[in-house]
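Encode chain A's predicted structure.
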Amino acid sequence: MSTITRSRFIPALAATLTAAALIPAGASAATTWLGSSLDHTPANAGSSCSDDGVGNPGDLCTHVGSFYPGFSGHARSKVNGTIIQLNVRPEGPMTFTAKVVNVRHVSSNHQSGQAQVTAHSRLITVPGPTQDQMDNSVYPVEKFKVSLKVKKGQEIAIDTTSNTAEYCSDGTPGQLLFDPVLSPGHGFANSAGVDGCLMLVQAVVKH
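Encoded structure for chain A:
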């Protein structure tokens, strides 16, 4: 390369690198969320599926976070993308499998509906707060990395025997329950009951 060509090449390269450095790191992708806004601390959580009138003691059931009144969250994804993280605010330890679901025919009182699974996570173990945290009414948000495809309008659900990540108060039909659990590859199933608590699970979506 001649001296003249090199002298022109180096400033041009520097200008290109400078321009690239000015592009925001997140310009190629953004994140949003669905599910709970996590603005409630868990309360009166941990009832089993059978306590809620679904299945037998010890059975798994699918909990669909289908209703979030006011600022407590939004049930449906607003975008197509990938769920990259689950934020959970539990009152105690639990294990669960997360699922992405289509939901339809939800009744006006949010007491019944139909759902179908399109994706699911690995089994996730949630330690829950320490005894010291519970003694001081501190319930931290726990975070878990996942990779689940989600489409606009879909919702988040979990399979568990006892959901400790929920806020329970009178008159809040927050979760549709399905028994047996919803399985990928199957059609829409009718809900078997309702859990009168808000599900404190938030899905972070990259799009």
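Residues 3-21 form the longest helix (19 residues).
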